[in-house]
């Protein structure tokens, strides 16, 4: 064999090796979110990857997956501190007896103490330095969040950010070298596939249950309770999930995270056959946005649509010809869809080439993108397939990065706790002074004036800025009544306010 042939063989071998390494690297990168180090396998998966016996061919063995995943699922315990609520009762005999006889008894302030509240749930470690995913409803309104690992070590957790729309939250504990779960691909989950649910139900220690994927892209309208822009496209399973499992892991038989357990369908509040998990492909996007921006960069197509399709009668009423997909009921001016030429009566059939048959399926696909991303939307119009290029927008109709605006910042004012001098002069035990009201905030529309002192929120007594923040956080997404005084003036003033949900 001459030198030329030898060099040719060496070159082919080197090229083959480089292509193999590159291909393997790309494969592994798809299993990690941006917060995970690509290619790094946690110690809890030692001996799992590369073992061909882990692909079930006969009797399914869950032990390898369960043993790999359970160290990365944590117990979350929360506490909401006791607080006092001051209420004023109306005199029921005022009209009958002139309002004087029982005035002192009924119209005086009544202080009610709401006792301390404790709850628990589950969470999933996703990085060796302590990032944890859980449900928003597990930690919503909590004053303290404690994390306990399977080795019984406990930590105080910091809340990094939340997304009520998808019911997700990201926490952080100060520790290194932690076990963590590798992300799988929820798109590859198939009906009938075995899955395991891992968490801390009913305040028990870490618990593993098994079931199958019984449906995908389910919407049960549960996130409407905490957000005006709910994102629901659940993986439905029959793995037993009970109160306390919320925020825990749904894994496949390879031990990969494919969902975050979030809800159950039950007439009793406990497991009755079906449980629901947030697909990990949505989770990855939400977590990366929260870590990078502090809040989710949610994209909108800009249409209103029929959730689960229309009946023949409804189609005829709307003037829609038959087609499988998402029926567009409106495409308002200023929205991304309108700009791309989509209009009422069109039927969206694909998002970036992925077929969609229902609203939840479309929402799941769009939830993976951010404002400014360009996608293709395939739709049916009068029996013809049309492909439109569309630039996604945020909820206010542009492509700017949405900032993480805290609840106090959204009010648009400078606050400070009222000093003792103000409190004593106005016969109050404390309050929050509204120093300066800014343009563009929620308070500007209420006609409140600078110098107002907030003394209660929804009849809950407010003494400090921290009290105000806590009360508004608990009430976010709803209506509140800010009560208080103007120092030096008689009377108590009330300002109604509707708080943002996110």
Give a structural overview.
This protein is an alpha+beta fold and 502 residues long. It folds into 3 domains: 221 residues, Thrombin, subunit H (Beta Barrel), CATH 2.40.10; 88 residues, PDZ domain (Pdz3 Domain); 92 residues, Pdz3 Domain. It contains 12 helices and 27 strands. The strands form 5 sheets. It has a 7-stranded antiparallel beta sheet with strand order 7-6-1-4-5-9-8. A hairpin with a 5-residue loop joins strand 13 and strand 14. It is globular and about 100 Å long. The N and C termini lie far apart (72 Å).
Rough outline: globular
Low-confidence stretches: none
Largest sheet descriptor: 7 strands, antiparallel
Query: Which architecture of the largest domain does the CATH hierarchy give at level 2?
Result: Beta Barrel
Strand proportion, as a percent range, falls in 25-35%
Question: What is the radius of gyration computed over CA atoms, rounded to a whole number of angstroms?
Answer: 28 Å
- The average pLDDT score comes to 85
Helix content: 10-25%
CATH domain class name of the largest domain: Mainly Beta
How many structural domains in the coordinates? 3
Structural class: alpha+beta
**Helix segment tally:** 12
Strands across the major sheet, in which order? 7-6-1-4-5-9-8
